[in-house]
Design a protein that fits this description.
17 helices; 11 strands; five-stranded parallel beta sheet; about 375 residues; single chain
């Protein structure tokens, strides 16, 4: 526990909070792009340690939250079919589709199983050759290598009953989409350390230069986050817009080259819909032509399924940093973790879930 406690040290956290206060001379708005960071900020009250004028807004840092409603409905349609074993991480089961969720499918008419790795789903496919086994491949760049490996291994083993329902998204295009919006108020970013552990930091340089915003690759513990905020504020006060790596204990400039090669081998970059936000060009991964036989959307004919988002849910505005969860009129009343209007309230990394869990009724409007 030594190294964990080191990054939760209260004295070190207060030291960075004082350094931020000494450095900040003007108001600045920063955005973290990681649901884990959002939960740490709200859980430990890190935003309350900051001086007046330094504001934190929460970005599209939860891949479960940005999975479009129509993709969830496709997952539910596939999972409801006879002869299908639908495998998913547990956090997807309670995310609401347009009429129901995967948990209700599991309880009634479908074989829905929680797994801890796509390779678990691959094993299920080997053990059940008479079944169609589908893995729900959701996530940022962090989950893409394992999902790619599962498809690669399925082909190597000659498995014809395994496929992926893919909803992989990429972080840098989403950041650029936020910065290009006329509603943008973000002046600096805390980039997700786990994404950069896979992909490296080189993609962020052009964004920082084009939009004149500092981008600090940041870890997930309280001291990490406060140090990331300090580095970002220092750049802003000095008029710099560079990429800095606070999370150097895990992130290399080039990332994990083996993981990147596996992603490039199996996937291709495509436009992707983001829940509540809309389509962002070159912001997703889809299976390449070489591996298209493992595409569950094609195999089950659900690609053209389209549905409308719930207009009452403000998750799109929250995911863009335009509003905070307590500013939603439905927060904590018509929208709760037991009866969510959208994914940000029920996902374990959702911003609304963080405010509801750690600040409860005090955060309600």
């Amino acid at each position: 526990m030594k190294y964990l406690e080191e990054y939760r040290d209260a004295a070190a956290a207060r030291g960075f909070a004082r350094a931020i206060a000494r450095t900040a001379r003007r108001p600045w708005t920063l955005m973290e792009v990681c649901g884990g960071q959002t939960h740490a900020i709200v859980k430990y009250g890190l935003d309350e340690l900051l001086p007046p004028g330094i504001g934190l807004v929460h970005g599209p840092g939860c891949p479960v939250c940005v999975t479009p409603l129509e993709v969830l409905d496709r997952a539910i349609a596939i999972a409801s079919r006879p002869g299908v074993v639908f495998c998913s991480f547990g956090d997807m089961l309670r995310i609401p589709g347009s009429r129901r969720d995967l948990l209700s499918v599991q309880a009634t008419d479908g074989d829905v199983r929680i797994v801890y790795s796509p390779l678990d789903a691959l094993r299920i496919a080997e053990e059940n050759p008479q079944k169609e086994v589908v893995f729900f491949a959701v996530g940022f760049e962090t989950t893409a290598p394992a999902n790619a490996m599962a498809v690669y291994q399925a082909r190597e083993r000659g498995l014809k009953n395994f496929s992926l329902l893919v909803s992989q998204v990429l972080v840098p295009p989403a950041m650029e989409g936020i910065l290009a919006s006329p509603l943008n108020r973000v002046q600096g970013f805390l980039a997700a350390g786990h994404v950069c552990t896979i992909m490296g930091v080189e993609e962020y340089g052009p964004i920082a230069q084009k939009y004149r915003v500092p981008i600090v690759v940041t870890g997930f513990e309280p001291v990490d986050i406060l140090q990331g905020i300090y580095l970002c504020v220092r750049q802003l006060e000095e008029g710099r817009a560079e990429v800095e790596n606070q999370y150097a204990r895990s992130v290399r400039r080039e990332g994990n080259l083996h993981a990147r090669r596996m992603i490039e081998r199996v996937f291709r970059v495509i436009p992707r819909q983001w829940r509540g936000i809309g389509e962002i060009q070159r912001s997703g991964l889809g299976l390449s032509e070489e591996f298209s036989e493992f595409d569950a959307e094609l195999r089950f004919g659900v690609r053209d399924l389209r549905v409308e988002e719930n207009p009452e849910c403000l998750s799109g505005l929250i995911l863009q940093g335009i509003k905070k969860p307590p500013e939603c009129p439905a927060f904590g009343t018509r929208c709760t973790p037991e009866h969510p209007l959208g994914a940000t309230m029920v996902s374990t990394e959702g911003a609304c879930a963080a405010y509801y869990r750690y600040r409860g009724r005090a955060a309600c409007p």
